[in-house]
Amino acid sequence: MNFAQLLGRILCAALTAAALALPVRAADAVRLLLDLESRRAISAENAAQAVPAQATVALMTLYASMTLMREQGVEPAAVVELAPAKVTEGTGRRAKTKTVPRSATVEELLRALLMSGDDEAARALTAKLSADEAAFTAVMNREAKRLGLTRTVFTTPFETPDAAQTTSAADLAVLAEALFRDHPEVRAWAKTRTAELAGRTVTNTNTLLERSNAVTGVFRSVGEQAADAVVLFENPRANGDVRRLMAVMLRAEDAEDLDETVFGMLGNGYRNHETVGVYGADALVARLPVLKGVAPDVAVGTDRKVLITVERAPLLEAPNSRLRVEVIYEAPLTAPLRRGDRVGDIRVSFNGEEAARVPAVLLEDVPQGSFWARMADQMRLALGWYEKSNVTSPAERRTETNTEPELSEDAETGAPEKGAAEAAEADLAEETASAGDDAAPTEDAPGGNDKKEGEKNK
Where does the record place Basic and acidic residues bias (predicted)? Predict the structure, then answer.
């Protein structure tokens, strides 16, 4: 290595160290507000950007630990030996130091890890559930891939600074939801304020729990370089459903900036947006024409409940007139057709913007018609007579428009239930009085490329 190369490496190392020492600017902040009912982003800023994952690595360490417990049959009550503590007895010349053994159950370690990202808990769980740190990290990355975390890479189960260890706000929202969904017992741990761990007290770092009863988790961390949080907000509705919002804030300047931004996002989502039902599962959306079958058409609908999250103001002003539902499919449909098969997409738009896109599935079987019926349809198709019947030629996409969609009353999620809901709204109003509304809703890019779209009113 010559002198110039050596000097270059030294300069590069110095610049890298200086960059790491720079304070995080507010402009670099990463945020996401997600409605967990409709799966739509209400607001987002750099949500898909890969950022350092140190502060929130505890969430995946926890998830991977619980996955390994299930695979290995490890019980929550299993005891794990910890590093012994040194205790001094007596004073002066008579003082004696002795070693006292320490232990904790697996459940206690998991709870401490979620509450504060406790390093001792992370290391004890890693040693208990895997051969070594590398093996445990491999499980973390395996689970990240299985959950579809596209920007997340782990190099260690511990909160050790490493530029190669990254995540994103979108990935963290998926991980946090999976943690609560796959391991319901975590919900109680996330709301625990303090807990004992082998003779010491662990305090929950998610102080947002103290500011609103509707905050039910998940994780908050304030470090020297940045402050991060993944917050779950749950509020009861009048019909028994629960309004569920997930706020993710990464790289905030400090704890105050973190808390104000999180409550600003939640306030915007709760006051200015609403989630309503359009269709229930197996609901009929349209009847589409069929060739060569015993019936001339087939019922098409949804295989799931269809919810949309929209701005509250236009929702209160003639909502059904702003709603548009379209079935996009490859025409023509040809028998035999089987119930449950996907034939295209159902696109729901509100106020001129796409609000949801779900699979369009067949709600009934259509067997093949008779030989003569099939021959007649084949001839009509070959001669192009179906063009006169508003059916496009083969291999073209077609849009069937439902001109009279309505927001379903049983699925409609309007005003929250009084009591807890009003208290939560009051909390948010108080916390966000000086923060103002957050960013405007973002539109998710629809998937797929339509070849050609025509329209036919029913």
Answer: 449-458
Choosing from 275, 291, 315, the residue where a domain stops is 275
Q: How far apart are CA 183 and CA 222, in angstroms?
A: 25
From residue 423, alpha-carbon distances to 214, 417, 420, 429 in Å are 9, 10, 5, 10
Residue 170 pairs with which residues in a beta bridge? Answer: none
201-213 pLDDT, tens digit each: 999 999 999 988 8
Parent domain of 109: 25-85+99-275
Q: Is the pTM of this model over 0.70?
A: yes
The Cα-based distances of 373 to 62, 299, 380 in angstroms read 61, 20, 11
Q: What are phi and psi of 350, to 5 degrees?
A: -135, 125
CA–CA distance, 396 with 384 (Å, rounded to integer): 14
- CB-count burial class (<10 Å; 0-12, 13-18, 19+) for 43: buried
Compute CA distances 49 → 339, 365, 416, whole Å. 41, 45, 34
Strands 297-301 and 306-311: unpaired
Closest-CA residue to 143 (of 130, 153, 134): 153
Same domain, 290 and 267: no
pLDDT tens digit sequence for 158-190: 988 888 999 999 999 999 999 999 999 999 999
In a domain, 339, yes or no: yes
